[in-house]
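Hello,

Our lab assistant flagged a job as stuck in the queue for most of the afternoon. It eventually completed. Since we weren't sure the result was trustworthy after the delay, we are filing this so someone can double-check. Below is the sequence as submitted and the structure that was eventually returned. Let us know if re-running is recommended.
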Amino acid sequence: MSVRHAILALLSEGPKYGLQLQKEFESSTGEVWPLNIGQVYTTLQRLERDGLVESDEAENEGTQKGFHITDAGSTELSSWLNTPPDMTSPPRDELVIKVLSALRVPGVSVHDVIQVHRRYLIELMQQWTRLKEDEADFDLTFALVVDAELFRLDSVVRWLDTADGRLKRAASEPSVASTGPRLGRRLVVRR
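-- returned structure --
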């Protein structure tokens, strides 16, 4: 997650001070991602150093120092919003690494490892669904975060199911085992 760009987005609404940015960030993310106030000020210092925000110099002690986005900051924000993230390489996902590692550990059933994680993910999906249903004053930002999390968890469960099926087929057809091309090459997407 880019806290830097989220802060620029909040500042695009108008000038704000650090604590206000922290509260609005948490509110705008459905209060799912807490943000340390120290991280806010560190990010603001970097943004100011890079010329993406400017601060008004607080003259009195105790006065909040306000920040506003610059033209360069608006350009940076627009570029970030309109540039797809680089997803050409598979991420170093801990669950994928666990499944791949389980294949190599003597005496460990990779199918059991998959099922333990699958059950856990299903329980998480149920918890997120209950949170969504229990929310009396339904909040759009929270709903979007919950939907994203449910879709993400569902895709991981589907991957585990696919991996389990592939491993079972490979066990019955030994020639299919671990031969084939390596993924050491990066996928090149033409635009």
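-- support follow-up --
The delay was a queue issue, not a problem with the job. The result is valid. The chain has two domains: 3-81, 94-176. The chain is about 60% helix and 5% strand.
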